[in-house]
Design goal:
With 101 residues, the protein is an all-alpha fold. The chain is built from four helices and no strands. It has a domain of 34 residues. The longest helix is centred in the N-terminal third of the chain and has 19 residues. The model has no long low-confidence stretch (mean pLDDT 76). Keywords: Membrane, Transmembrane, Transmembrane helix.
């Protein structure tokens, strides 16, 4: 058994002492990289608690703006416009019926 320990008997562990810290650094780096590519990018493990995540563009027109454009272009008549507008106001709570004071 003393013959196996002979290389370390004189000068200490040598450069091999750096192997374990470097190995742990690589493990931590790998775990962080894996989490960044999967879980953290998609809202985290509790991302479903924050409500729905909409992927619509921010410059997309609102449904009420689209309805107004269709009415202005003559695609729908006034009766259809007011009917759909009341439904949209109830759904988006932007009108007087929505309760937003």
């Amino acid at each position: 058994m003393f013959t196996l320990a002979a290389p370390w008997a004189g000068g200490g562990p040598g450069p091999w002492i750096l192997f374990v810290p470097v190995l742990w650094a690589m493990v931590v780096f790998g775990v962080v990289t894996l989490l960044r590519r999967t879980v953290w990018r998609h809202g985290g493990p509790r991302g479903h608690l924050r409500g729905p995540q909409f992927s619509a563009r921010t410059d997309a027109p609102s449904p009420i703006a689209v309805l107004g454009r269709r009415f202005a272009a003559g695609e729908i008549d006034e009766e259809e416009y007011w009917r759909r507008l009341s439904v949209l106001e109830e759904h988006f709570a932007t009108g007087p019926k929505g309760g937003a004071a």
